[in-house]
Design a protein that fits this description.
Two copies of one chain form a homodimer.
Chain A (H helix, E strand, L loop, with lengths): L2 H8 L2 H10 L4 E2 H5 L6 H13 L3 E6 L2 E6 L1 H12 L10 H11 L1
Antiparallel strand pairs in A: 1-3, 2-3
Chain A binds a DNA duplex through helix 4.
Chain lengths: ~100, ~100
DNA sequence: AAATTATATAAGTACATGCTTATGTATTGT
DNA sequence: ACAATACATAAGCATGTACTTATATAATTT
């Protein structure tokens, strides 16, 4: 799990879509495939990349493997972003809200 | 400037290094090259990619072109990250600090 | 135990990407 | 006007990446 792993993992739109879907709730690889016009091996490979980047955790449940968002990867991005706080625009509403939530 | 442009731009370590250097202060392409073992065309191409992603602004100053960090790109990353706030770890200190800064 | 289901891995291929060398364009200095 | 400097663009090439098909592994069901 390096900065490089993370950014390369997120560089692919299919992988971002998978991650985004996973963020709506943990699920196994087959469920992730539903409605996603992607082959089984392709999904497996994408999940491996996301996993290596620590954007995703996996846990075997019988013959399924359950996947979920791994906060570690997100934390690394947040830290990367924080380095440039001097350049953040005045009105960054989404983040402002976020901060309030966290800071209570 | 799309989400895709941004993540692809940041996927390359050389480009992240250029961006990081630029974050220490605006400078022209030649200054960016100093100490960076990279050819002039390569630098120019990287800057074009960063520019298209709105991670960098450019302004011609005589025969130099001055580059600076463009907050627009950073804002897009922040918004992307904000979508996953449900998964942020409890103690994300860098961001907590950041929020305080922004929130008053 | 054999068949089925879920996922992973291997090998090959087409295309994307980051570099190079060569050349073009813009601006300044003499 | 000409040379020099700063940067951009074009074309070619080597490597990386995302897919495919084929096959392996792991767990469940009958």
């Amino acid at each position: 799990m390096t900065e490089n792993d993370i950014f390369r993992a997120l560089a692919d739109p299919t992988r971002r879509a998978i991650f985004e879907k996973l963020a709506t709730g943990s699920m196994n690889a087959s469920s992730l495939r539903d409605g996603m016009k992607i082959s089984q091996p392709a999904m497996s490979q994408h999940l491996a990349v996301l996993h290596q980047a620590k954007l995703v955790r996996q846990e075997r449940k019988g013959r399924f493997v359950n996947y979920e968002v791994d906060p570690d990867g997100l934390a690394l991005i947040a830290n990367w972003l924080a380095k440039y706080r001097a350049y953040w625009p005045e009105r960054m509403d989404a983040l402002r809200t976020l901060l309030k939530d966290m800071d209570q």
